Structure formats: structure tokens, C-alpha cells
Amino acid sequence: MAALAPARRITPPPIVGAALLVAGVLAIVVAAKLAGAPAVKDVPAPVVAERELRFEDRADGAVVVVDVQRPERSQVLAAGTGTDGFLRATLRTLARERHRQGIGAAPPFRLSALADGRLILEDPSTHRRVDLEAFGPTNAQRFARLLDVPPATRP
Q: If we measure between CA atoms, which residue out of 146, 151, 149, 148 comes closest to residue 66?
């Protein structure tokens, strides 16, 4: 009896095409690096308004927004208002990160309006930043009111 010849494996064309595509992209990236192509950097827009804020929960469910530099500008966000849900959820997320790192509620957050219309909420103690415009103009508007400046319109 004659031994059967092993069956030849044929690689499907889509797999070969995908492998060639990946190899091509890698070759382009390596060539760009070797040629000294500069990395793309996001240059931040200048800050046009900024406040350092502390958010304190009250027993009745309201949130007190305390301006660290000017406490007389503090505001109270009443409990149960539907307009502050995004604000409260954003703050809970940042507070959870502080709790995870063992940081208390004392350090203020920084709310900044940039010249390009973006609003940024950052926590200097954890180095977390939230680009509030990414969540839509309605949600960003609530934070813009805390700055007392209207959000800029994008060009």
C-alpha cells in the first residue's frame, strides 16, 4: 500500500491580505520614525476662565459648590433637580478615584474654560481630566454656569 501524501494547506487570500496590510503599516511607521517625523501633539488652548471648586454633600441631598478663592461665590445645587444628574455623576466618578487612592475631599477640583470653547474639569490630586464638551453641549452647559461664563461656540 502506498502512503498517502500529506494534504497541502492553502492559506486563504483574506488572511494573506490582512498580514500584508499589517506588515505595510508597520513598515510605514518604522520608516517615519527613522526619518525623524515629529510626533503629533495636542497643543492646549489658553485658559480664559478658571475656578478651583470644592463640592460638599449636605444631609438634605443638596450639593454645595464652594469657590476656594472666593467663598462668597458659593452655590447650592438643590437635591432632586433633574438638571444636575450629569454633574453629580461626573463628580461621583472623580470622588471614587480619590477614594481608591486614599485622597479625601479637601483638595479642590479645577474647572477651566479654554479659548477653543472646551470645558475641562480636572482633579489635580489624581491627575484625572474630563473634557466636558465630549458629553454634549447640554451637559457642558451645567458646568459652564459654575464658571459664570457662557461656553464659547466652536468655529
A: 146
Task: Please tell me the distance from the alpha carbon of residue 31 to that of residue 100, in angstroms, as a whole number.
Answer: 42
**Is residue 34 assigned to a domain?**
no
**Spans in the chain with pLDDT lower than 50:** 149-155
Strand, coil or helix: what is 133? helix
Cα distance between residue 30 and residue 51, in whole Å:
44
Domains of the chain: total: 1
Q: Quick check: is 13 in a domain?
A: no
**Bridge partners, residue 53, by sequence:** 67, 109
- Per the confidence metrics, is the pTM higher than 0.70? no
In which domain, by residue range, is 107 found?
A: 47-147
CB 123 within 8 A of CB 112: no
